[in-house]
Amino acid sequence: MKQLVLDGSQRGYPADLAPIASLELAALGLNPRDGSAQLPVLTFDRAAWNRNCDAMFAYVAAVGAQIAPHAKTPMSPELARELMERGAVAMTVADIRQAAVMLEHGIDRLLLANQIGGPVSGARLGRLLAQHPAAKLTLYVDSLAALETAAAVAEVAGRQIDFLIEVGGGRAGARGLDVVHAILTRLDSMPMLRAAGIAAYEGASVSSDAATTRRDIAAVHGLAAEAFALLRARQPEGMLVLSSGGSSFFDLVLDDLGPVARADGQCEIVLRSGAIFFSDHGIYARRLAEMDRRGGFLPAGFGAASDSFVPALLVHAEVLSRPEPGLVICGMGMRDVSFDQDLPVPVAAWREGQSLALPAGIAVTKLNDQHAFLQLPGDAELAVGDVVSFGISHPCTALDRWSWMMESAADGTIVGALRTHFG
User: Fold this and answer.
1) % of the chain beyond a pLDDT of 70
2) At what angle do helices 210-234 and 177-187 cross, to 10 degrees?
3) 5-46+309-419: CATH class
């Protein structure tokens, strides 16, 4: 893998230093806690990542499932390769460009878990696959139009292509068995395509009401089970796939679809959780607590999910201004951190590298492009030049703001860098 070279044009690396190779970064001793790493900066805790990987792979082994983690969270071929080495059956991607990044870095077992458009896009993907003859890429199909696109992929790639029939609600996916039946009927005249299983996504069925969410997830999985029965009737022999499962409700996938797979005897459940390997201080922290209340992580033997998974990402920012007694402005904003599913959470404060107690009630109330507005008591001790470390909510939309992430040690020191590929 080509070594990353850092310079002052990249966030987090001091603008006054000469460019440096990533393998030499640790020797500089940069640390966001004392401001020697240029702020704001996103840091990645590999120890937390490893702990999360241990927990998730223990879970899938315990429940007899497989996992194809979603690569779109970090878009890091290095981390994707680690997940494959740990036993992932494939990496999941969301579009053709993401597939190209993974293929270019030698990761050639892919699940493209999204509709890709029409025949022009199909031909484009076919040309990409023709450049990688050993690649095994499985598509999604949710309509006759999508089946025609898959046919274009196969024709241009010059080989048989597998696909999963996607069913769903709230996002893409066939809404009824009539569509599934039509796809299977049309497939009889398409020898270059093979239906390898059924896919769903329960996350699109989430609402603010827990009972409604559970009902709607069960409905989506019920449709998946019915579609699977139709497919199995057409293909009575051979292994098939049932795939669902983001990072919040993967236990419910096993509750709903596990009995279907066991009864069939030739079916693999494939989860697609990706953000879980980073966890967070927001949406996933809450969802893991909900999972614990229903005992969903107990099969892993790790105890509570909320203890087994720990946040692996922080964004660090300097206090720029204290213009009013109850207001602090930090140099971090919408260009640096996720805000689509909660604002960032202050988790630590530092002065010249030494820990400061976080003021009671401190909270981010608003973000501008490059400013975070923090509310706190008027007499709180937090001054210009202090550093605040923030936990994030929703790793996917935090990581895609960074072209690389700093790897940090337990004491906060930067020990390496990982390139991301968000375009």
Assistant:
1) 99
2) 30
3) mainly beta
